[in-house]
Specification:
The complex is a heterodimer of chains A (186) and B (200).
Chain A: H1 2-32, H2 35-51, H3 62-81, H4 84-95, H5 103-114, H6 118-129, H7 134-141, H8 145-165, H9 180-185
Chain B: H1 3-10, H2 18-36, H3 42-65, H4 69-82, H5 94-102, E1 114-122, E2 125-133, E3 139-146, E4 158-161, E5 164-172, E6 175-182, H6 187-198
Antiparallel strand pairs in B: 1-2, 2-3, 3-6, 4-5, 5-6
The chains are: A mainly alpha (186), B alpha+beta (200).
């Protein structure tokens, strides 16, 4: 019986790698700003996820669970290695390539994110990059929904202010008010 | 830039094509390592310990309930004696009396008649067998041996076989007695007999 369960776990984990590695990598990249570190962190997250796979009770919540492992791994790494301070110089070369946006714009977004507190950056990435609703973020971060909303609002404001300060208000001029329709879509 | 544009921008960075393959390779390496070194969790350890303890307990109870082979042999000897027609040949004579006294064993109480006294071989070892009638009813068989009866200390030391109560006693170093009492014999009389013969 245990062998069957293990085989099922392997199949599921294999699927997770296929399905979620992109989301995890981009999340890690925006948090670290370094392609190599991001890949390393994603590997670390998947490693820890496999070890602790039995602790995940709801398999349909794999992505939030993996992202939580990833964020914790990155914060732990940043605390001990201070890699965060070394990453900015590498970012400009990361965002060049087959991107629709100008590299300068992505770099500006990254710098704006970097100026946010960890709490605010988490909310921005979970909402805008991963597409989670307020409720889902609230559940993942274990904070009230109102806190999520206020953090997101504050983050938008800071990002806009930083963009203006950078003399590129046109580039990162975020919507101040999100439409109800857009919120409902999530 | 509106929210949609921010979303699009955040999803712009390319994901290395090799990443998925690399992740899978690392995971497979991890699987092989796990297969090589089986992790012992506290839960597993507790489970194994409990199983071992239960197995030992079961074994102990089984051994405790199992009648030792020597008792079965003694029972067979008693049964074969009952079928003999020459029991008169095995009376408690002076030779036997002297032989017992030389081993510091007193003769039975006067009220208890020795119906048969002989030597038998139980499990290849010479054993003195006394069949003593109770004062009123019943009988007790004493198998006296220098040394032990090859019953492990954790094995059963008393029990019942064919409605006879049996018990192994060690009156002193180097002397063992297998006492087999019929159900209708007064146990207090047996205790008094043993006391008189071996502990006086």
């Amino acid at each position: 019986m245990k062998l069957f369960r293990k085989a099922a776990s392997r199949a599921q984990f294999d699927e997770w790698i296929s399905t979620h590695h992109t989301a995890l990598y981009r999340h890690a990249l925006w948090m670290t700003g370094n392609r190599d570190v991001a890949a390393e962190m994603v590997q670390e997250a998947f490693y820890q996820a496999w070890v602790a796979m039995d602790s995940l009770k709801e398999s349909d919540k794999a992505l939030p669970w993996l992202l939580t492992i990833l964020r914790r791994a990155i914060y732990r790494e940043q605390r001990y290695q201070y890699r965060h301070t070394e990453t900015m110089n590498h970012l400009s070369e990361l965002v060049t390539g087959k991107t629709d946006d100008e590299p300068q714009r992505l770099l500006l977004i990254y710098r704006a994110l970097e100026n946010l507190s960890a709490n605010h950056r988490d909310v921005v990435l979970l909402h805008y990059l991963q597409g989670f609703s307020y409720e889902e973020i609230s559940e993942q971060l274990q904070v009230p929904k109102g806190t999520v909303m206020s953090r997101l609002s504050r983050a938008r404001q800071v990002l806009a202010e930083l963009a203006i300060a950078a003399g590129d208000g046109n580039v990162v001029q975020l919507d101040n008010v999100r439409s109800e329709k857009h919120t409902d879509e999530r | 830039m509106n929210d949609k544009q921010l979303e699009r921008s955040l999803k712009q960075p390319e994901v290395p094509v090799s990443l998925e393959k690399k992740l899978r390779n690392n995971w497979h390496t991890q699987l092989k390592e796990q297969a090589g070194q089986r992790t012992v969790t506290p839960r597993m350890l507790m489970g194994v310990s409990t199983s071992v303890l239960l197995a030992l307990l079961t074994l102990f109870l089984v051994v405790q309930q199992t009648t030792p082979a020597i008792v079965t042999l003694a029972m067979q000897d008693i049964a074969s004696d009952a079928e003999r027609n020459d029991q008169a040949r095995y009376l408690f004579d002076d030779a036997m009396r002297v032989q017992l006294q030389s081993r510091n064993i007193q003769p039975p109480l006067p009220g208890m008649k020795v119906k048969m006294a002989k030597y038998c071989t139980l499990n290849k070892t010479k054993t003195t067998h006394l069949r003593i009638a109770g004062a009123i009813r019943g009988e007790v068989n004493l198998f006296i041996r220098d040394g032990g009866f090859d019953i492990p200390t954790w094995g059963a030391q008393q029990g019942e076989i064919n409605s006879m109560q049996w018990q192994v006693i060690h009156p002193r170093e180097g002397l063992s007695v297998l006492v087999m009492r019929s159900a209708d014999m007064n146990p207090q009389n047996v205790a008094a007999l043993i006391q008189e013969m071996f502990y006086a």
